[in-house]
Structure formats: structure tokens, C-alpha cells
Amino acid sequence: MGSSESILGTLAQPYLRGDLFISTKFTPQIAGSSSNPVEAMLEESLKRLHTDYIDIYWIHNPTDAPKWVAGLIPLLKSGKVKSVGVSNHNLEQIKQANEILSKEGLSISAVQNHYSLLYRSSEEAGIIKYCNEHNINFFSYMVLEQGALTGGYNSRHPLPEGSGRAITYNKILPQLEKLTDAMAEIGAGKNASVAQIAIAWAIGKRTIPIIGVTKVGQVTDAAHATEITLSEEEIQRIETLASRAGVNTRGSWEQSMT
């Protein structure tokens, strides 16, 4: 409800705005009743972030999406929003957003969906292909599946009990061990961790991974993943093992993409 924006806005103040790339989201479920709720929510975000524009403004989910996408048009024209992204949208909804914007000579610039070795719905639905064909950046979130694909957890060392992650992933960790073992083996030949292999895979699929971090070292580790190239054979190997794991990590908030 704005807390993270306030924290980020405070931390960002010593830096030149031009050196930063800031994105935030419009969430339909908490929209107000003003004439343009998208603009009203944006104005609040701008205040908290101590800035006068947002580089990517996301429509958080497709609830009443056409209505909200249309509300972005004046914000794009004013310069308060530099580019538009849509999150958790399927291919039809992405195309619909582009059609609405195209009437004003505009287009979406980014898509943000759950995408990992364990959940490739956006690839199977043709979303990543569509993005590549239309110069749209695809941002992949949950690439590490909340730690399950970092190599740091397995049936002998599960995620901390009582956490939401543990409830979701601990029961499937035994099914992931052949996959993470193979990723560790591939990483050993590249001086890379399992997590870096997962990130490098997502980059190799022409996506931009969004990585949750709590330590500086995790940032530098993720940056190193950009230097790792996986062979077609290595990609095929880990994708096959991921499919054989037979797990479904689709979130409760996600619609089916296929």
C-alpha cells in the first residue's frame, strides 16, 4: 500500500534521477473513484518516490484491463509515464492493450509474467514470441521459484517451516533434485551457482529476469549470470528434467496463459 515506494523514494534521493530506472504498478483492485483512477494512483506514487515521472508504469493484473489501459494514454502523452507495461496478462489481453494504445500511436513496451524452468506457460502460449516480434521486453518473475531453484534447498534442507514458501515448495523439493543436481553440474563447469544457471537460462530465452534480493552479494551474483551462456544441449537437458519433475508452480493469483 505504498510503503515500498516510500522506502525506495527516500533511498533514491541522493542520486540523479537520470541515473535511475524506476517502475511501479497500478493495481485495479485498489483503484479509487476519481475521473481517472490510474492518474490518481500515479500521482500518489510520484509523491512517495520523489519523482515527476515513472519509466515503466504497470497495469498489475487484467481486471477490467481495457478501462485502465485507456487511462494511461493521457499520462503517456504528458510524459509522467515514459512507457507502459502489463503484468499477468495472457496473449489476447496483451494484444488488446496494444490495440487500445495503437489508436493513439502508442504501444506497450513491456510484459511481466511468471516464467521459470518450472513454469513456462508464457512461452507455451506464444507470449514471449509475440513480445520478441513486437519489440516488447518480457520481464520474467519468479525465475528462482522463491528459492526452490537456487540449489540451496532440498528434501534434506527444506525452506524454513511456517513460511509461505515452505507451504508451496517443500512438498515438491524431492521432485526437483535431479534438475538442481544437473544445474549444479553444468554450473561447476562455468564457475556458476545453480541460481546463476537458472537466471542465465531465462536470459537465454530472451527474457529479463526480476530477481528478489536481500543481500548485496545476490545482486552481484545475478549480474554475473549475464556473462553465462548455456549450450543448446544444456538447455534441452534442464528443460527436459524440469518437465519430468511434474510440478505446477502457478500462483493462486495467476490465470492460465494457455
Classify the helix fraction into a percent range.
40-55%
- Based on DSSP secondary structure assignment, what is the total number of beta strands? 6
CATH homologous superfamily label of the domain at 1-108: NADP-dependent oxidoreductase domain
Fraction of residues in β-strands: 5-15%
Q: Give a short account of the largest sheet.
A: 6 strands, parallel
The shape, in one word, is globular
The name of the CATH architecture of the domain at 1-108 is Alpha-Beta Barrel
Just give the CATH class of the domain at 1-108.
Answer: Alpha Beta
* Radius of gyration, in angstroms, nearest whole number: 19 Å
Structural summary, described in words:
This protein is an alpha/beta fold and 258 residues long. It has a domain of 108 residues: NADP-dependent oxidoreductase domain (TIM Barrel, Alpha-Beta Barrel), CATH 3.20.20. The protein is built from eleven helices and six strands. Strand 2, helix 3 and strand 3 form a beta-alpha-beta unit. Helix 1 crosses helix 2 and helix 8 packs across helix 9. The mean pLDDT is 93.
Summarize the structure in short.
This protein is an alpha/beta fold.
Keywords:
258 residues, TIM Barrel, 45% helix, alpha/beta, 11 helices, 6-stranded parallel beta sheet
